[in-house]
Each structure stands twice: as C-alpha cells, then as structure tokens.
Amino acid sequence: MAVTSYGVNANEAVKLWSRQLFTEIESETVMASLMGTDTDSVIQVLEDTQKGAGDRITMQLRVLLSGAGVSGNNVLENNEERLTTYTQNILIDHLRHGVRTGGQIDEQRIPWDMREQAMQGLRDWWADRLDQSVINQVTGNTGQTDLKYVGFNATVAPSSATGNTRILYGGGTASTENSLSAGSETFSLTYIDRAINQAKIATPIIRMPQTPWGKGYVMMVHPNVFRTLSINAAANQIHIWQMQLAQIQGGKMDKLERRANFPQVFKYRDCFLVEDDRIPTAPGTTTVYRNVFLGAQSAAVAFGRRYGNRRMSWKEKLFDYDEQLGVKAGMIWGCVKTTFNSRDLGTIVVSAHAPAL
Questions:
Q1: How far apart are CA 157 and CA 349, in angstroms?
Q2: Residue 242 DSSP symbol
Q3: Measured between alpha carbons, how far is 217 from 270 in angstroms, rounded to an integer?
Q4: Does residue 243 carry a pLDDT above 60?
Q5: How far is CA 334 from each of CA 72, 83, 153, rounded to the nearest angstrom?
Q6: How confident is the model at residue 221 (pLDDT cuts 50, 70, 90)?
Q7: Confidence of residue 311 (pLDDT cuts 50, 70, 90)
Q8: Residue 100 contacts by C-beta under 8 Å, 6 or more apart in sequence?
Q9: Residue 306 and residue 185: Cα distance in Å, rounded?
Q10: Residue 173 above 70 pLDDT?
Q11: What stretches of the chain adopt beta strand conformation (E)?
C-alpha cells in the first residue's frame, strides 16, 4: 500500500506547517481579528517590509488643514497653508520559539502525533504572545520593558495633553491610578460614554473603525472589571445582563458571538465590549486595570518579507541519532501604538478599580 509521508524539513511539509500555523494563530487571537491593511482597521498592517529589505517603517500622519481660506476676489497667493505632518517609526525583529520531543519511547507511550502536538503548542504560544504584545502597546504598559513582550518597540504611557487626554479614571474624581481604590471607582458603562465623547472631541478625532461585528469602537476590559458590570447595583446603572437580553431580543447575539476567540462581546451604543485577561494592571498597583478604548489605527503591525502571505518560518531538526525531534517556529514582526505629536492617535485608556476575588 502506498503511503504519503513527509520527512523532516521536506519542502512540502515546511510550506504546509508554516501556513497552517499562521492560520490557526489568526483564529485563536483577539488582536489578529482586528487587523487589516486599510486605515479603518483597529490595527493597521503595514506592508512595506513585506515587499523589500529593511527593519523599520516610517509612518506619516497629515493633520487636517485649519486655515480659513479666501473668498470672493481676495488673493490666495501668499495665503496658502503649509501642510503639517508627523512621523513615527515601527521596528521589526526576529522572534522564535521551539519545542523538543523526548525520543521515540515518548511517541510509543502516547497516542498522538508529536509533530502535531508541537504545532499546537507553538500555536498557543504565538497566539498569546501576539495578543499580549499588542495589548501592552495600546494600554501603554510601561511596566513591561522586555521588547519580546511588546512587539520590539518600547511602550509609551497614555498621553495626557491638556484638553486631549488619552487616559480617564474610574469614578471621575481621581487624578492618578494609585488613587483608584474605592468601590465607587469601579468600571461602569458611564466610562464608555465618556470615552466615546472624548473620541469625538479629540484633536485629531478618534475615528470609528471597522470590526468583525461591524462599524464601531472596541472597549477591551479585564475579566475582573467585566465582573463589576454584572454585580454593580448602583442606581440608574445598566447591568450587563440587560445588554445581553436586549441583544437576544434584537436577534444580534449570534452575530456578536460568532468568533470563538471572543468569549463574550456586548454592544453598547457604538462600542463593542470585549473581555481579555491580558489587560495589565497599572504600574505599582494590583487591583487597578488599564482597560482600553480602541478606534481606527490604534496600533500598527509589520511583518518581514519572508513572512508575508500568511506564513511563518518552520524548521525541524533531529537530535541524538534521530531519537528526538525539535521544531522551531519564528517570525519577523513588530507592533507599536500609533502616537503622533505626543498624542495617542486611536486609544483611550480607562483605568478602573476592580476588587480582588
């Protein structure tokens, strides 16, 4: 009987596993679902480094013209307005990880394929690392200084320019994250209202992005914070179960929960509420979480030219007289929160206290 099999590093196997790994990572990650190449995406994929050599991309933002213009027969010459642009760099680097089997006796003892298990283990590792890196960026998690956990670009704290602050505090009266400790400073839907309002009056405005569920902002909150929405008994507060009931009655629940990598998604006004346990605590705190409100172009990602078209590097190697199989999966990539003129372009951090369980 003829049997089709692929040896270590067979060309067909490399292509098969590298593409399959990237595809499965996409299906497991929250942030990959928010990526796209157009400017309406929450996370914009920059393709320059996929097309040629280089380890960085310089992004450019052109500010809207603000001049009054001229009317009637007034002269336009010498009354033109100068274009104002700002730039930001995104660096990419090579990130790799691997697994190694114990030997043929290990494969004899277990009823599953070691190569398949290696792929699944690397898939889970990469999915978590991609999500964690992007979340560390958009939340401005300056407490994480290891570049392997932030997409190879140093994180920047939420901007706080007067009149255009990109950080809001639960309770509305606190002025620092360290002062958020009381039950009255927990998260509520009021703070989504505040974030939406801030997005609309920001300079430049924070645009509404396209998401897997339609057009709308995205608010990512930690599960401990999400829980406070379910138990909050304050007067005039909408409970999360009321939102869920409204979505079921409106026939929208199936649409909002279609993707398995989003365990719960609720819509409130023009904002999709998503929970994720990778939301970090504020530096120096243990119960204050940096939930984040995301608009269009909140972050940017880039990949190396060998890793375009949904591929990663896949390498297998035999050790100890071919007893042990080692598998390596790598990718050249980088991510960064978009910040221009010392202002975050598409993010608003909403810090709130959540009691420990």
A1: 10
A2: H
A3: 6
A4: no
A5: 51, 29, 7
A6: very high
A7: low
A8: 319, 324, 325, 326, 327
A9: 48
A10: no
A11: 35-36, 43-46, 56-62, 85-91, 93-100, 167-169, 210-211, 214-215, 217-221, 265-268, 271-275, 288-294, 299-303, 313-319, 324-337, 339-340, 343-344, 347-353
Q: For the purposes of burial, counting CB atoms within 10 Å of the CB of 294, is it exposed (0-12), middle (13-18) or buried (19 or more)?
A: buried
**Residue 73: C-alpha distances to residues 68, 76, 79, 291, 346 (Å):** 15, 9, 13, 53, 40
Closest C-alpha to 152, from 337, 300, 336: 336
Cα–Cα distance, 321 to 324 (Å, whole number): 8
Return the domain boundaries, the chain: 11-62+82-139+300-339, 158-296+340-353
Tell me the HSE value of 160 on the side-chain side, using a 13 A CA sphere.
9
310 Ramachandran zone, left/alpha/beta (phi>0; psi -120 to 50) = left
Instruction: For domain 11-62+82-139+300-339, give the CATH number.
Output: 3.30.2400
CA R_g for the chain: 24
Pick the residue with more confidence: 3 or 181? 181
- DSSP at 37: S
Looking at residue 338, what DSSP letter applies? -
Kindly state the helix (H) or strand (E) to which residue 122 belongs, with its residue range.
Answer: helix 114-138
If you ran DSSP here, which 8-state letter would residue 186 be given?
B
Beta-bridge partner residues of 56: 91
